[in-house]
Automatic annotation (TrEMBL), chain A:
Pfam families for the chain: Ald_Xan_dh_C (PF01315), MoCoBD_1 (PF02738), MoCoBD_2 (PF20256)
Protein name, entry field: Xanthine dehydrogenase family protein molybdopterin-binding subunit
Membrane-spanning segments: none
Source species: Xanthobacter tagetidis
Single GO term (MF): oxidoreductase activity
Metal-binding is among the record's keywords: no
UniProtKB/TrEMBL annotation, chain B:
Keywords carried by this UniProt record: 2Fe-2S, Iron, Iron-sulfur, Metal-binding, Oxidoreductase
The organism's place on the tree of life at top rank: Bacteria
2Fe-2S ferredoxin-type domain span: 5-81
Species per Swiss-Prot/TrEMBL record: Xanthobacter tagetidis
SUPFAM superfamilies: 2Fe-2S ferredoxin-like (SSF54292), CO dehydrogenase ISP C-domain like (SSF47741)
Keyword Oxidoreductase: yes
Pfam families in alphabetical order: Fer2, Fer2_2
Matches recorded under InterPro entries: 2Fe-2S-bd, 2Fe-2S-bd_dom_sf, 2Fe-2S_ferredoxin-like_sf, 2Fe-2S_ferredoxin-type, 2Fe2S_fd_BS, Beta-grasp_dom_sf, Diverse_Oxidoreductases
Identification of the protein by name: (2Fe-2S)-binding protein
Length: 782, 162
């Protein structure tokens, strides 16, 4: 088998269309007669709906309908939306109605929808829908939400505790009782939104001739969406097709199913016309899920030489008003805390609080950045407390490569024991330190200080569970025109899914990469699918692609041997042709083999033959595969403005075997940019009434080209033994340790002032405040 | 409702005439009236830059521009940047080579912004490239590929690659 593409920097097949304006995103779907929707949304964090008067709006020119909860079809009119990831640890199994019935629990919650001839007219009419609200006390802060007597986020719940659980292993009390040193930290962290450049959007169209309801949605999970729509509309899934066309970035918030997707589908059915809804950016700030506040109180017990005896503490997580994706993020956070270190004893008590804010669901990293921040801040405290270099403290605690596979002692989010499958943590850290010229840093710092500049260096390590199940499928079908059709439930929001799957299949099947046609994100193309989240597609869909291609290849060899009259061992496959390796080397193309595979009308198939030159494989990973790496950041702080400039950013990244280094480098670099936003800028602020106050890109700052250095990237490849390709996920690792490394670098830069930081985002305002408290300006003035 | 107005605009070299509401944005005019869906709308408040087009050769936010404001002027969109027929120009090829795009949503605005830069300044420094695209947000790439592509394209254009 000639390997031509796997492992190579193959230029992406997706690019030519996207570079010439020929992408097809959901807002590019236009159907004759299509109407446009705009939602009426709650302006209150918490309120009762006394009445809705849509009379005036319905009389507006161009308005076709105004729908409230009572206008929706059963069962969605009365039912709450299904929970996507239920869990026994969830006390408050609370999801929202598609349109609010009598209570709204966050600003932006969907109350009604106007359907009109243009978005302009629909927005005009939304302003005319009169909703009489009776405001209720709202709870905004997740710590305050758990205080006795706090207002409840839902009026019928006794308190705001959505879930409480404990993670533990080892004898943590003994670990602390005899410890020579204990260091404590109280940490506040905030993640912000996914903020894909393309907002959410839905187009729904019911074809009366075929009775097929087609829904185009900017989603990461079209197959899950189809199941949800089927449940909410009481409709056979066979009569629903969900398509995720080109999607302009996902980052997590597009992985869950939203009320708007169901309402637009229902509206298209009710009105008998296609309906489009495109979220605007303000709606995205209000109503697309976020990750938000976590408060950690943790302590670490260590030996005199810095080796860890145990870690314990508590975590409060803000889930917002609902729990659509269960308690995945705090669960992942609690299981990510041990990281790459030998941790003999661990205990974390987790509480999940309901607040009157939009729900939180995974954003790139999904609880892991917070856990890594907590653990790495503790490691830095150990280093500072014992006077040991931060890199050395970490080195002394690493799980060694010969200890793999390594059982941490917990159950991971996939329901399986948390067992690291492979990795070389000491090597990754050593490579990152080399990239960063860590050895030369003290000299650079001394020179900078002489020049009145404050530079610092920060290190962070992480281990990330990736490639989660349950499965992803790939169909490989050789067609009679000689082209190879590939269908998958995996989806593409920019990850280059089409390119990586094509690389795998062209090598394993023996066809030209340009002869592969791909159907991605379309429920009509493959029966079962899951979608994009948890850095899972290279592992799941990649493995399925390899498996399906190999089965089809075997079938190609079998048919070709028969057609060419040679033994199977004498058939070679190259560029979509089967070639006999004997005689005058006769050959037969894939197209002719596909025709042969259909048999002849009325004639019996050969014994054992299955019709069609195709196979569908569903890889089901036995457990997560664990990606890992080290980030080293060198940063400069302007002490007069609090501005932080990242001078160099070095990454050693281990996501197992690499399919396409061009794409993996891009994932790492992009993930780091997201982490820089988390560390220094992005903050979704709510006031005490849970009213969001950062609802534009002027208030909510995103990293720009001048904020993000080009990373130095080294790849450590520890193949995973858990899948046929040896791959692990690569989409989130760039984000996960970034905040920890950057905050450490800022702290190190300000070491002359003895300042400690334990929060994100570390804004200029916060840095100047800390410098003021530390007396930096008095000293400078004297 | 305010009366519609007739406008006449040269779009990617072709004269287009239409009757539009005064409040229709240039972005919606291009996307929905002319079906030129390559121009994307990311924030509708002038920060993200995804909707950037060239008006008489100068970059402009089409989400903050009304269609009536370009009456009598020439607009270039992503569809008008390359050699045509789906082929890639030098800057577009560099974008593919350097993996300067992932989801592709910010890409049209990046290309129009950088086209203006390379017209004005055929030999920009890395800092100049970064400064110019601070008006364009990209959530996917972390900008490294975009910066590398712009510098590579500038070099190739200076060396006379068509």
């Amino acid at each position: 088998m000639g390997v031509k593409h796997f492992g190579a920097r193959v230029a992406r097949l997706e690019d030519p269309a996207l570079l010439t304006g020929r992408g097809r995103y959901v807002d590019d779907v236009n159907i004759p007669g299509m109407l446009h929707a705009c939602f009426v949304r709650s302006p209150h964090g918490h309120a009762l709906i006394q009445s809705i008067d849509a009379g005036a709006a319905r009389q507006m020119p161009g308005v076709h309908a105004v729908l409230t909860a009572d206008d929706l079809p059963a069962p969605m009119a009365g039912a709450r939306m299904p929970m996507l990831v239920p869990n026994a640890a969830i006390a408050a199994l609370r999801t929202q109605h598609c349109l609010a019935r009598d209570e709204v629990c966050y600003v932006g919650q969907t109350v009604a929808v106007v359907i009109a001839e243009s978005r302009y007219l629909a927005e005009d009419a939304v302003a005319m829908v009169e909703v009489d609200y009776d405001p209720l006390p709202a709870v905004s802060d997740c710590r305050a939400a758990l205080e006795p007597g706090a207002p409840t986020a839902h009026r019928d719940l006794p308190d705001n505790l959505a879930s409480a659980f404990r993670q533990s292993f080892g004898d943590v009390d003994a670990a602390f009782a005899g410890a020579p040193h204990v260091f404590r930290e109280s940490l506040f962290q905030h993640r912000g939104g996914g903020m894909a450049l393309e907002t959410r959007g839905v187009v729904a169209h019911h074809d009366r001739i075929t009775d097929l309801l087609t829904v185009w949605s900017a989603t990461q999970t079209p197959h899950i969406g189809r199941r949800m729509i089927a449940d909410l509309l009481g409709r056979s899934p066979e009569r629903i097709r969900v398509i995720a066309p080109d999607v302009g970035g996902g980052f997590g918030p597009k992985a869950i199913f939203y009320a708007e997707e169901a309402v637009i589908a229902a509206a298209a059915l009710l009105l008998g016309t296609p309906v489009k809804w495109i979220e605007d950016r303000r709606e995205h700030f209000l109503a697309a899920t976020q990750e938000r506040d976590q408060h950690w109180d943790v302590e670490i017990a260590v030996e005199a030489d810095g080796r860890i005896r145990g870690v314990r503490g508590s975590l409060i997580h803000d889930t917002g008003a609902f729990v659509p994706w269960g308690v995945i993020m705090p669960y992942i956070a609690s299981a990510t805390m041990p990281g790459p270190y030998v941790l003999p004893a661990y205990q974390l008590d987790v509480k999940v609080a309901l607040t009157n804010k939009v729900a939180t669901t995974p954003v790139r990293g999904a609880g892991r950045p917070q856990a890594v921040f907590a653990m790495e801040r503790l490691m830095d405290r150990v280093a500072q407390g014992l006077g040991i270099d931060p890199a050395e403290v970490r080195r002394r605690n690493f799980i060694q490569p010969e200890q793999m596979p390594y059982a941490v002692g917990l159950i991971f989010r996939d329901g399986k024991p948390l067992v690291y499958d492979s990795g070389d943590y000491p090597k990754a850290q050593a490579e990152a330190l080399t990239l960063a010229d860590h050895a030369g840093f003290p000299a650079r710092k001394a020179a900078a200080l002489k020049a009145g500049r404050h530079i610092g260096i920060g290190i962070a390590n992480y281990v990330e569970g990736t490639g989660l199940g349950p499965f992803e499928g790939v169909t490989v079908r050789v067609q009679q025109n000689g082209k190879v059709l590939v269908a998958t439930g995996a989806t593409n929001q920019g990850q280059g899914t089409r390119t990586t799957l094509s690389q795998i299949i062209s090598d394993r099947l023996g066809c030209r990469i340009e002869d592969i046609e791909m159907s991605i994100g379309d429920t009509a193309a493959i029966a079962n699918g899951v979608g994009a989240f948890a850095s899972r597609q290279a592992v799941n869909a990649g493995s399925s692609a390899a498996m399906a291609a190999e089965v089809v290849r075997a079938r190609v060899v079998q048919l070709a041997a028969r057609a060419l009259g040679v033994p199977e061992a004498e058939v070679a496959i190259e560029d979509g042709k089967a070639i006999a390796q004997s005689g005058n080397r006769p050959e037969i193309g894939f197209g002719d083999l596909a025709r042969l595979s259909q048999g002849m009308p009325g004639f019996s198939m050969a014994a054992g033959d299955m019709p069609g030159l195709e196979h569908t494989a569903y890889f089901t990973p036995p457990q997560a595969s664990y990606c890992s790496g080290t980030h080293v950041v060198e940063a400069e702080v302007d002490i007069m403005t609090g501005g932080v400039r990242l001078l160099t950013y070095s990454v050693a990244h281990d996501s197992g075997t690499i399919i396409n280094p061009l794409i993996v480098d891009g994932q790492v670099q992009g993930g780091v940019a997201h982490g820089i936003g988390n560390a220094l800028m992005e903050f979704m602020k709510y006031d005490e009434n849970a009213q969001p106050v950062t609802t534009t890109f002027a208030d909510y700052l995103m990293p720009m080209a001048t904020d993000v250095p080009t990373c130095r990237i080294a790849h450590v490849e520890s193949p995973s033994p858990l899948n046929p390709l040896g791959v692990k996920g690569a989409g989130e690792g760039g984000t996960i340790p970034a905040a920890a490394a950057i905050v450490a670098a800022v702290e190190d830069a300000l070491s002359p002032f003895g300042i400690r930081f334990s929060e994100t985002p570390l804004t200029p305002e916060r840095i100047v405040e800390a410098l003021t408290v530390a007396g930096a300006y008095k000293r400078a003035a004297s | 409702m305010i009366a519609k107005r007739n406008i006449s605009v040269e779009v990617n070299g072709a004269l287009r005439q239409a009757e539009v509401e005064p409040r229709l944005t240039l972005a919606d005019f291009l996307r929905h009236t002319l079906d030129l869906t390559g121009t994307h709308v990311g924030c509708e408040h002038g920060v993200c830059g995804a909707c950037t087009v060239l008006v008489d050769g100068r970059s402009a936010r089409s989400c903050l521009t009304f269609a009536v404001q370009v009456d009598g002027r020439a607009v270039t969109t992503i569809e008008g940047l390359g050699p045509g027929a789906g082929g890639l120009g030098v800057l577009q090829e560099a974008f593919q080579r350097h993996h300067a795009l992932q989801c592709g949503f910010c890409t049209p605005g990046m290309l129009t912004t950088l086209t203006e830069l390379l017209n004005d300044n055929p030999d920009p420094t890395e800092d100049e490239v970064r400064e110019v695209i601070t008006g364009n947000l990209c959530r996917c790439t972390g900008y490294a590929g975009i910066v590398a592509a712009a510098l590579d394209a500038a070099r190739r254009l200076r060396e006379g690659e068509a």
